[in-house]
Amino acid sequence: MRTVIGFRLRLALFFVGMLVVVQLITGALVYGVTHRALVMDGERQLAANAKAFDAQMEDVSARIAGNVRVMALDFALRQAIAQGDRATVLSVLHNHGRRVGASRMQLVNLDGTIAADTADEHASGQTFSFVELMQRAFYQQAAEMAAVQGHVYWIIVVPIYAPQPVGLVVVYVQVDDQLLAHMQELSTLRRDVVLEVQRAPSQWEAVAQGDRSTPFALGLERVTGDFPAQPSLRRIGQSDYIVLAQPLQHPFNSAPVVVLFGYSLDDALRPYHKLALAWSALLALGLAAGLLGVWVIARNVSRPVEWLATVAKRIEQGDYRIPPRLPRRDEIGALANAIGTMTAAVQQREERIFHQATHDAVTGLPNRLAIEAEITLSIDRGVARGSLLMIGLTRVPDIIKTVGHGLCDRLVRDAGERIRRVAGAAEVARATDSNFVVWLADTGSDDAVQAATRMLDALAAPYTEPDVSIDMVPAIGIAIYPEHATMAVALLRYAETAQFAAAGSSKAWAFYQAAIDPHRPERLSLMGELREALTRGQLELRYQARLALSSRRLDSAEALMRWQHPLRGTILPDVFIGMAEDTGNIQRLTRWALETAVTQARQWCSQGLMLRVAVNLSAHDLGDADLPRYIADLADSHRLPHGQLTLEITERAMIGEFDSALRVLHQLREQGFHIAIDDFGVGQSSLSYLHKLPVDELKIDQSFVKHLTHDPNDRVIVRSIVELGHGLGYEVTAEGVEDEGALDYLASIHCDHAQGFFVARPLSPGALADLIITQSKPDHA
Ligand code: C2E
Ligand code: CA
Ligand code: CA
């Protein structure tokens, strides 16, 4: 902005400056030319004056000479001269002298002696001072300027004939201020005229002045130095004068006399002062007008430019309100309108970019960034609690690998819509390729589980297209605010961790557990230690007895693994089974469990306790094609009837390489081992689907059993499962029996087995044997 105004201002100032410079140069030129013209004019005038002065003096001479000649015709005078009658001569001289304006008259004899003098009685007989004038007088006009006794006189000498020359009359006309004034009256003689007499070499003194009051006269009363022969410029007093010095003819015996003429340049310039004043005023006016113009333009430009700068700043800060149109038709108006249009365009583009940056292109749902911001926002607003569901479609990576992105995108879009439909007011986002996030503000863990179940139901039906039907196989991880974490990023990460755990569990959903968080440092060390646990004998099996409901006998037990950690104490399988799977240790663990359980079963057998023992297999085990032969060899080597060993698998164990898993199961079953589906009810598969699997037993998941006493819905579900299971020829076991009510209900609907804390806790082999022996005593029943 500054540069724009700076530019305009500079331009305007340049023009004003130019105006001033041109005016000043013009002024200087005009002054120079005028000055020179005046000087020349002055010089001309002075030269003319000098000539006029000479001419006037000549006139004076001629007039006086004529007068004297008339006087010489006077007979009485001639007679008086001849008779030497001095009195008559003096009287005549007096009379005539007065008439011609002379201040002194003399009669001089032809021999040069003074015969009579009107000013000095005693001069008779003295010699006349200026004899050279006498000789000249006989053949031409003889008049010269002479200094006599401190005064200057115009001395005119006229011979007197009778008819022979008899003498000469000398007329003294004093050249004083009066005479000069008189001459000024008669002619154009200047006021600035001074007559100077040389008193000593280079010392001059004024004896007559045209006007004593002028600086010229005052400045030249006494002069040291000589006068230039040409007119020249001199500073006299406070003023500039052109001075012309004209030497006057003087008799030999007289001091030199000079007449000085002055031409005052100041006076000559005076008429031009007005002009200069008017011109200066004009210049000042122009300057003022120019500066006003500059100021107005600058203001006119700077105001809207400043305003535009403010608008630009606002846009920079993300305020896209469209600025009002400027009612101007000039470039600035156009610029303002362009900025308005641009603002709208930038706003649209920014909205689009923002939408792209915060939304997933496939589902149109907010992305991970957006949901993270949303969660942070609701935390900042102070929600008391909240739950974060991370819904993973666990087959998506496989789907992309096998059928590509096109179909996968359609599947994910469909999943997104299903989730949206059941999410209600909750925030839904797509966090990664295969993960959705649902944020339920103001909900606790119970609501979270309900929501998770709703989501799982919504995603249960496979995605179908003509010729394609794909199971989404969802798994949901749940992180609770503020229990698990207080920050959005952590909640997201924890929910994801939980989702991994859920993918491996039978329920298909799981809460975050710090203990199994793969990113926790202690888990890393646990994973390392797990390798050693087996060789160091830190693993044990506990056995949880199961009650046969028809006979009320403990006829079987499930082997559950425990890790006796030297520092951390007993670690439950939920913590380390997942780790073992992740680190590739699960097969060793499974084989160890099988061997230990088979050995134990054999031992009980030897003690007379015929207990069927169940061992849990993990999903990874079903990928092991050697497993059926291994187990068969194991049972055979311990001489354990195959029917005494149950192998528990979850439905989710069938995910992945379904065909090979199915083959392993078939082989196991063919060899006579008992196969149980663990955690039945929380998976997605239907009973009809299960029917394709070689299965002997269903274990109803704890979540349906725990609340049997109080929850009629659960009772309906459990009864249906029992009935359907029996209908398909399966044995049915209920897990998680925690009270008598549940046990009684299960007995009433003819469920086969009950397992749970109410029946027995997982126990060491010895403790279990004791329990069974105690229970089988007749008095106990
Ligand atoms: P599961 O197979 O469903 O085992 C039953 C779990 O429920 C056991 O937990 C048991 O202690 C617990 N339980 C039994 N009755 C009740 C009850 O009345 N109320 C409640 N609240 N819980 C009850 P545990 O021992 O912590 O085992 C957890 C899971 O770890 C097992 O679930 C199983 O999936 C897995 N697991 C345990 N041992 C092994 C093993 O040797 N190999 C493999 N692959 N998995 C194992
Ligand atoms: Ca089990
Ligand atoms: Ca179970």
From TrEMBL:
Gene3D superfamilies: 3.30.70.270, 6.10.340.10, EAL domain (3.20.20.450)
Membrane-spanning residues: 12-34, 275-298
Pfam short name (any one): dCache_3
GGDEF domain mapped to chain residues: 384-513
Keywords: Membrane, Transmembrane, Transmembrane helix
Start and end residues of each EAL domain: 523-776
Biological process annotations from GO: signal transduction
Any one GO molecular-function label of the UniProt entry: cyclic-guanylate-specific phosphodiesterase activity
Keyword Metal-binding: no
Residues in HAMP domain copies: 299-351
GO CC term (a single one): membrane
PANTHER family given in the database record: CYCLIC DI-GMP PHOSPHODIESTERASE PDEF, OXYGEN SENSOR PROTEIN DOSP
NCBIfam families per the UniProt record, alphabetical: GGDEF (TIGR00254)
Protein name, UniProt field: EAL domain-containing protein
Organism: Dyella choica
